[in-house]
């Protein structure tokens, strides 16, 4: 069991997508999505531009890993497909990739596509070029812009730049972090994404 820690630069409810009682990471962070295993934990901390450094945006425990096609075709996750004329929750749906017959990926009209539904090649390559994994967690807490500060002693788990850390987090800190978050009663979607308009 490992803890994967990174900074959530753009907190819009897209990556992660904390809606519909399951937290999903289906875009961005390809190295985490490739190397994370069932039972691992992910923590996203706030960014300096959002004035949330050292605060927890969300955490999740991974209990299912699907391919993009499995995610796209699973009836459980149809509501995670984006609807750009819908609510903000629908606009930032993350179920956006499926394979064509030739093995390449199609990208739904979404936050990661260009205006008019044109495929964004940089986003497509970042999201699909390194891994086909979508991470899902039913045990999670998402606070968005109102998350708690990491307590004294756990500040070192917060990554300070783009990218992520996992193997460099000492096991004692991993255990302490998990005990801390699991000791809080809060679960599910509890706060607005930091970058949603007020």
From TrEMBL:
Record-linked Pfam families: Nmad2
Superkingdom, taxonomy of origin: Bacteria
All residue ranges annotated as the Nucleotide modification associated domain in the record: 2-196
Protein name: Nucleotide modification associated domain-containing protein
Species: Methylorubrum extorquens DSM 13060
């Amino acid at each position: 069991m490992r803890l994967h820690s990174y900074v959530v630069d753009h907190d819009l409810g897209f990556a992660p997508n904390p809606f519909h009682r399951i937290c999903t990471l289906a875009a961005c962070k390809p190295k985490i999505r490739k190397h994370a295993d069932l039972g691992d934990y992910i923590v996203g901390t706030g960014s300096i531009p959002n004035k949330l450094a050292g605060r927890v945006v969300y955490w999740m425990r991974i209990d299912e890993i699907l391919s993009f096609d499995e995610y796209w075709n699973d009836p459980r996750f149809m509501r995670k497909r984006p609807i750009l004329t819908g609510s903000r929750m629908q606009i930032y749906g993350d179920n956006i990739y499926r394979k064509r017959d030739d093995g390449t990926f199609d990208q739904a009209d979404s936050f990661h596509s260009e205006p008019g539904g044109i495929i964004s090649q940089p986003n497509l390559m970042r999201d699909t070029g390194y891994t086909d994994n979508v991470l899902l967690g039913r045990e999670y807490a998402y606070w968005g812009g109102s998350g708690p500060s990491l307590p004294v002693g756990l500040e070192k788990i917060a990554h300070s730049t783009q990218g992520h850390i996992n193997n460099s987090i000492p096991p004692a800190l991993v255990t302490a972090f998990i005990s801390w978050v699991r000791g809080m009663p809060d679960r599910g979607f509890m706060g607005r994404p930091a970058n949603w308009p007020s």
